[in-house]
Amino acid sequence: MNNNLKSNVKKHIPKDWLCELRILYRLGIQTVSDIKRTGLVNLVIITTMAAILMIFGACFRTALSISSFSKELGNALEISVYLKSSSDIKEAKSEISRFEHVVEITTIPKSVSWDKLKNEMRLPNIDNPLPDTLHVKVDNPENLQEVFDNIKTIKSVEDMSYAKDLAAKIELVNHVVKTITFVVILIMALLTVTIINNTVQLVIQSRKEEIEIMRLMGVNNWYIRFPFIMQGAFYGFTGSLLAVVPLNYIQNGLNNVHKFFMIPSPPYAQNLVILVMFTMSILFGAIGSYWCIKKHLQV
């Protein structure tokens, strides 16, 4: 009953938006004050953060390009399907097209293959020994083996082939690139949180008495935490800003490599890298600050 009464009373209490804005303004001023208090150490922290983020951004952007190269090379792989002499090529094509992951089937009648072979080589006047052939394209190199096994079950198929070793190497490259990117993200997170944690700890020590007084006065915990969290986010944001400059040069270099090999660059790759870099740096910076104040102040 009392809880319902309290909730009803709270609903009728008007919110003082001006007061809340003043609190936010005060917290912002406190954040700026803490950053100024850190002094020249800010420059060391921001440049260190920028170096870490630049390495992360370079690895992430390169990983996107390598994945693009692997995908383009994988898309060129085809499964060659050779039909039995008594088979209906249209029926076989229709049957294969029903399988999952099949995106395109090219039909090559044996008469076309035989004419092409006779034009390239001097052959005696004999009957056409070549089979009707189907070239099957798959949506992803990882699905080649699955489609290969499915086509093998068709009765009209006499033989099949595809560059299995090349497909395995492409899949291995993609796996290695994903693993390296994940490891780099973990290292970046660890270094960022550690750097921010140590920096905020210095600020906490310089404001220890002030914080103790606020706690004795019953100040809300988040009022104490917020400036430190914002300071960590500030280091992540400014470090990302500096890291964007060298990343533009890396982007231009990778674009030239794509143009040289005539392989399209991943769409919005640079925008994606920048978005992920800013998001992760701000998030990890804030988390580092939060853990620090929670650990050392127990608020």
| Shape label | elongated
Unreliable stretches covering 5 or more consecutive residues: 5-14
Number of domains: 2
> Would you tell me the structural class of the helices and strands?
alpha+beta
The strand count comes to 4
Strand content: 5-15%
Number of helices: 10
Describe the biggest sheet? Answer: 4 strands, antiparallel
Query: Helical proportion?
Result: over 70%
Distance between the first and last residues' Cα: 32 Å
Radius of gyration: 32 Å
pLDDT averaged over residues: 79
N-to-C SSE string, H for helix and E for strand: HHHEHEHEHEHHHH
Q: Which sequence of strands runs across the widest sheet? A: 2-3-1-4
What does this structure look like?
The chain has helices at 2-12, 17-38, 41-75, 89-97, 110-120, 144-152, 164-206, 208-216, 221-260, 269-297, and strands at 78-83, 102-108, 133-138, 157-161. It folds into 2 domains: 23-72 and 169-297, no CATH class; 78-162, Alpha-Beta Plaits. With 299 residues, it is α+β, with helices and mostly antiparallel strands. The chain contains 10 helices and 4 strands. It has a 4-stranded antiparallel beta sheet with strand order 2-3-1-4.
